[in-house]
Design a protein that fits this description.
The structure is a single chain. Mean pLDDT is 91; it is low at 1-13. By secondary structure, the protein is of the alpha/beta class. The chain has 8 helices and 5 strands; from the N terminus they run E-H-E-H-H-E-H-H-E-H-H-E-H. A 5-stranded parallel beta sheet has the order 2-3-1-4-5, sandwiched between helices. It binds thymidine-5'-diphosphate (TYD). The site of thymidine-5'-diphosphate has 16 residues, from helix 1 and helix 4. Thymidine-5'-diphosphate (TYD) binds at residues 26, 30-31, 53-54, 68, 84, 109-110, 114-115, 118-119, 165, 167-168.
Length: 230
């Protein structure tokens, strides 16, 4: 008998669920859009788990405090990358993967690409190094779809208003590098991304996201039906 080959890490533990990440610079409107999508999916009868990074778990909320609310210079760049990766490791192991295995739709405000864009590109720790670190942390789990809400540094700053955490206080040059980091990731794997101009009206963006997610869910339904038929 042939030996069973384990599934590749990128699909391991995905179960029947759907994993959608929302990415983009600070002030891009990710939580508005993930909230609207979550509400719409719930109304359609889907089980939805809405979460975020950093801070989607109890441990993550403590890590979030360390990462975002210290003085400038309180976290060195590599410590920052490791703390975001630690938050992510625990988030995936204790919340995201179990929800996917239970067949839920998981919507996450930020995921792995935020580390590549902020720590890898903007802090110049290296795209590949930071990506590898996070992939190790999550045992290869990548989203089925990443919605990238593209916003310029200037516009993001204007939308955020007055209150700024440690990363939001960074310069416009930093936020421009973040933006390029995200766009670069999307260009490498266009099939897994939906890139939208975040300055478009909220309702238009929401409709575009719903269309893409509906396509994914119907593909998933077809695959499940084929599997049932043998
Ligand atoms: P948050 O208040 O969640 O911002 P937003 O509402 O814009 O998502 O703050 C998260 C901050 O942490 C944000 O500035 C981006 C940054 N971040 C990283 O630098 N690396 C990461 O891996 C993640 C997940 C977030």
């Amino acid at each position: 008998m042939t030996e069973q080959i384990p599934p590749p890490p990128a699909t391991r533990g995905h179960g029947g669920g759907l994993f959608v990440a929302f990415e983009g610079g600070d002030g891009a409107g990710k939580s508005t859009q993930s909230g609207l999508l979550g509400q719409w999916l719930t109304d359609q009868g889907y089980a939805v788990r809405h979460t975020r990074e950093p801070g989607g778990t109890a441990l993550g909320r403590q890590v979030r405090e360390l990462l975002l609310h210290g003085e400038d210079g309180s976290v060195s760049p590599r410590a920052e990358a490791l703390l975001f990766a630690a938050d992510r490791a625990h988030h995936v192991a204790s919340l995201v993967r179990p929800a996917l295995l239970a067949g839920q739709v998981v919507l996450s405000d930020r995921y792995l690409d935020s580390s590549v864009a902020y720590q890898g590109a903007a802090r110049a720790l290296g795209h590949d190094e930071v990506r590898e670190l996070s992939l190790w942390a999550v045992e290869g789990l990548v989203p089925d779809l990443t919605v990238l809400l593209d916003v310029s540094a200037r516009e993001g700053r204007a939308r955020r208003g007055e209150v700024h955490d440690r990363l939001e206080r960074e310069t416009d040059e930093f936020h421009d590098r973040v933006r390029r980091g995200f766009l670069d990731l999307a260009a490498r794997e266009p099939g897994r991304y939906l890139v939208l101009d975040a300055s478009r009206p909220v309702a238009e963006l929401a409709a575009a996201i719903r269309r893409r997610v509906t396509e994914l869910l119907s593909q998933r339904g077809k695959v499940a039906a084929q599997e049932r038929l043998g």
